[in-house]
Write a structure and sequence with these properties.
Radius of gyration: 14 Å
Number of strands: 11
Strand content: over 45%
Structural class: mainly beta
Distance between the termini: 40 Å
Number of helices: 0
Largest sheet: 7 strands, mixed
Amino acid sequence: QGQLVESGGGSVQVGGSLRLSCAASGFTFSSYAMSWYRQAPGKERELVASISSTGGSRDYTDSVKGRFTISRDNVKKTVYLQMNSLKPEDTAVYYCNARGAVAPFRGRDYWGQGTQVTVDS
């Protein structure tokens, strides 16, 4: 059974930086696209950034473009989210997601437990 464990969350001042990590186990990491989602209190979960299984393609929601960078290390089976120039509106619980990108893993989906990011104004 696949497992994702996030780390690196915490409290930071406006304009600061944090680096989130998500360590994967129990599945073929290199065959999965990886994403970071976030959910703020009273809001729906939103997709923040995604990276393809090979790392060759990356996408970001408009509000984080130019500030956040998603990357992955298929040897370490870890995905990262570097967050710079943080704003109060970035405050949320951040979740790591793995989604099967190639057969026979298409349709498989794993979630981490989430890590809190708080940006103090």
